[in-house]
């Protein structure tokens, strides 16, 4: 570890991380971080080194809930942006853009691994718009169920896991040897796919299998998910926002809309819990309109989509499946209808593919 000074005389430490990269941290640890019962490690990245409105909103909500906030930015920040971000958190760590969010959380853990917040260590990032209801209310609802670790969404894709964009850890989890080993491990030679598998999915799965885990959305109550897992943060974004169970929207959904979800076209109608519009947040972030889809794109997704629940003609069944999670009889009827329609369209799709192949050969 070496030290240097900025022009204004502020002491800066260059600290080497387990992944072989370096990060810049302020010389003195934040006293609030050291003493707080709630600590948040917030991973930030922006290709242009900007601090967007949705980031400011999230940080303000975290602070209102009593979290001491450590922001870890993998962006190239100007002096002005650095000061701006420092004013919104209790400590700022700037690092190279390597290792995705887990590389950022490792950087914070390297500095603060000896802290022992009495309540929670929160790992989160800037990949969402929200919270779109008061965070304090949502956390109160979430933590009403006794658990060792909390998340927003449990995802059964790849392997059952808590999605890593929001992980609320109690001391039982963040003091566990597995977590400590993960945070001190070397990811320098790992690819993006390997990092996702080992850290995002791996740790999320470990939380489900080794601890009492609770999430705002649990696919265990879904008849469709029991047969075909899907990403609820995309397919059910508007339904979960409407009932307040998950008051966040994944930025990827509005930026790319990879599954051609039709409801994204109505993004301007989206309101927060107080009736406020999210238009300004989205436009400030994307610099333009979200990725709306055409009827042709949705038709294409219907026949070529690899995940049946994401096919446009199945979306209605997915929504009913969610809305009837406490009414199992209706949910089972809905699933049977879903299965019949999906099988019919799948058979039609296979038949159409054969016709096209024969036409190409002739």
Map the helices and strands.
Blueprint lengths: L1 E4 L5 E6 L5 E5 L4 H5 L2 E7 L8 H12 L3 E6 L5 H8 L4 E5 L4 H13 L7 E6 L2 E2 L5 H8 L6 E7 L5 E2 L3 E4 L1 H4 L2 H7 L8 H19 L2 E5 L14 H4 L1 H7 L5 E2 H5 L23 H8 L8 H10 L10 H9 L4 H34 L1
Parallel strand pairs: 4-5, 4-7, 5-6, 9-12
Antiparallel strand pairs: 1-2, 2-3, 3-6, 7-11, 8-13, 9-10, 9-11
Helix pairs in contact: 14-15
Q: How would you summarize what this structure contains?
A:
By secondary structure, the chain is an alpha/beta fold.
Shape summary: globular
What structural class do you assign from the helix and strand content?
alpha/beta
Global mean pLDDT: 87
**Tally of domains:** 2
Let me know the largest β-sheet: 11 strands, mixed
Helix content: 40-55%
Percent of residues in beta strands: 15-25%
Distance between the termini: 69 Å
């Amino acid at each position: 570890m070496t030290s240097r000074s900025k022009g204004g005389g502020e002491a800066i430490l260059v600290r080497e991380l387990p992944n072989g990269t370096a990060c810049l941290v302020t010389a003195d640890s934040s006293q609030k971080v050291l003493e707080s019962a709630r600590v948040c490690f917030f991973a930030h990245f922006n290709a242009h080194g900007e601090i967007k409105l949705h980031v400011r909103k999230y940080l303000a909500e975290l602070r209102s809930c009593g979290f001491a906030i450590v922001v870890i930015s993998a962006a190239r920040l100007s002096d002005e942006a650095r000061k701006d971000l420092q004013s919104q958190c209790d400590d700022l760590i700037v690092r190279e853009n390597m290792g995705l969010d887990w590389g950022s959380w490792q950087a914070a853990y390297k500095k603060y691994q000896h802290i022992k917040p009495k309540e929670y260590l929160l790992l989160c990032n800037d990949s969402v718009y929200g919270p779109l209801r008061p965070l304090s209310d949502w956390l109160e609802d979430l933590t009403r169920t006794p658990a060792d670790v909390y998340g927003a969404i449990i995802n059964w894709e790849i392997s059952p896991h808590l999605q890593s964009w929001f992980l609320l850890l109690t001391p039982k989890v963040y003091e566990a040897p597995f977590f400590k080993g993960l945070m001190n491990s070397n990811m320098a030679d790992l690819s993006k796919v390997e990092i996702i598998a080992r850290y995002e999915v791996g740790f999320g799965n470990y939380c489900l299998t080794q601890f009492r885990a609770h999430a705002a959305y649990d696919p265990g109550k879904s008849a469709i998910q029991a047969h075909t897992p899907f990403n609820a943060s995309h397919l059910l974004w508007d339904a979960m926002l409407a009932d307040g169970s998950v008051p966040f929207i994944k930025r990827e959904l509005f930026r790319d809309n990879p599954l051609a979800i039709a409801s994204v076209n109505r993004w301007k109608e989206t309101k927060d819990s107080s009736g406020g519009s999210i238009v300004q947040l989205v436009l400030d972030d994307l610099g333009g309109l979200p990725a709306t889809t055409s009827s042709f794109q949705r038709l294409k997704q219907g026949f070529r989509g690899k995940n049946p629940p994401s096919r446009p003609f199945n979306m209605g069944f997915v929504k009913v499946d969610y809305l009837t999670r406490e009414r199992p009889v209706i949910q089972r009827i809905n699933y049977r209808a879903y299965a019949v329609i999906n099988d019919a369209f799948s058979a039609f799709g296979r038949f159409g593919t054969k016709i096209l192949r024969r036409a190409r050969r002739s």
